[in-house]
User: What shape does this take?
Amino acid sequence: MFFELTKFNFLTSSEKQIRKFAILVDEGRVSDSVIKEKFKVIKTKKYNEKNAKIIIKNITIASYNISRERTDYQTLSDEALVHLVKFIKIKVI
Assistant: This one.
């Protein structure tokens, strides 16, 4: 499968593409600037609750497949998650 990084995003990419992206990041085959750009796009937009949940799920899938030692990636993904949580309605029981 050919993986086109320029078309990758955490909202519309399939789970298979998310995992492929994670593998490439973990292997160091995705530059820091590309990783930063993928998360910058997320942090500059507002989302509805449905899309925010999809992106959170996909970031979580990717993070699970990337070594915790990749703090460059983990920091950016955590910042994006904090941004996305703002769009989730939390019900207090």
